[in-house]
Inverse folding.
């Protein structure tokens, strides 16, 4: 593996730099605050592929006219438990933050509520969409479809996006349980990062030009054909996300790439759905005890850990001491701090 030169940055420095980069790219104050915080959290918790490395992607989306840097999302209530958002061709996280208080209130009122969002872009880890809901005492599920690059099991061409999903739930006396994952073996940005850092993937994550599974990130980037995790099981989950994301929200299907390709963009304007559930309205007064028991059965069980808890150690260390960032990346981004 190629040795990488790094520079140490505090999280506030990461956020401040990301904010200035996005403002220079044309973003308004409110939107740049949301995305700068997302970049910082990605560097803090992981995946790093969704942090500072994503800034040029955001900038390109604005410069090409594909995304709206001055987006003003509109939120409407279409049913007692349903919010529908039009992100004004901006990033989903901006609309989700605008809708969050209403979504929480509706879940508490009805027991369950959902937010769908179309005319939007999503390039960050989904855990940051669901974690605030769990911090409010709710169970949350989030999905979003993305550009087609995942080959269905047994297929020869991509149909689905990496189609990530996230789950979060409250946990007594500790941070919420939060996990997110792609429907593919590996996310595209992790393939790009492996190529940039000069190392193979730990396991076959896509197809090479001969149609064979490969660990070579450059070969996978050439075909842009990723494998679903768990073979047919991952492909089935990718299908579910396509329906809950694109179809339910009215977003762009993963296979509809014409607009994206015309702008040289990394994402389709897919659909996103967040579902929030108030466990106190479902009749089991011992819900929190159940969560605690399941987590206890996992912890101390060999090398097992509660899903998503790996981020907590990274978060504590990064919050205390900052993070190491590739000097080559900082130079590419024009960091002068």
């Amino acid at each position: 593996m190629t040795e990488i030169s790094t520079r140490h940055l505090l999280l506030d420095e990461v956020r401040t730099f990301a904010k200035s980069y996005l403002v220079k790219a044309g973003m308004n104050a409110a939107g740049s605050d949301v995305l700068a915080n997302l970049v910082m959290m990605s560097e803090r918790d992981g995946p790093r592929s969704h942090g500072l490395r994503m800034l040029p992607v955001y900038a390109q989306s604005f410069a090409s006219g594909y995304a709206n840097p001055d987006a003003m999302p509109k939120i409407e209530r279409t049913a007692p438990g349903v919010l529908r958002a039009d992100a004004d061709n901006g990033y989903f996280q901006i609309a989700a933050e605008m809708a969050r208080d209403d979504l929480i209130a509706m879940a508490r009122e009805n027991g369950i509520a959902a937010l769908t969002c179309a005319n939007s872009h999503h390039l960050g880890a989904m855990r940051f969409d669901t974690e605030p809901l769990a911090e409010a005492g709710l169970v949350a599920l989030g999905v979003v479809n993305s550009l087609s690059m995942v080959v269905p099991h047994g297929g020869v061409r991509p149909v689905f996006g990496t189609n990530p999903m996230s789950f979060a739930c409250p946990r007594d006396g500790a941070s919420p349980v939060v996990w997110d994952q792609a429907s593919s073996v590996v996310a595209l940005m992790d393939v790009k990062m492996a190529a940039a850092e000069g190392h193979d993937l730990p396991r076959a994550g896509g197809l090479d030009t001969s149609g064979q599974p490969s660990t070579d990130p450059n070969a996978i980037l050439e075909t842009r054909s990723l494998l679903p995790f768990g073979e047919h099981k991952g492909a089935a989950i990718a299908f579910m996300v396509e329906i809950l994301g694109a179809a339910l929200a009215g977003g762009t299907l993963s296979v509809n790439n014409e607009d994206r390709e015309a702008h040289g963009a990394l994402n389709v304007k897919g659909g996103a759905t967040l579902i929030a559930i108030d466990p106190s309205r479902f009749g089991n007064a011992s819900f929190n005890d159940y969560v605690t028991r399941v987590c206890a059965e996992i912890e101390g069980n060999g090398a097992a850990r509660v899903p998503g808890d790996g981020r907590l150690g990274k978060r504590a260390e990064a919050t205390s001491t900052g993070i190491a960032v590739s000097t080559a990346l900082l130079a590419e981004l024009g960091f002068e701090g």
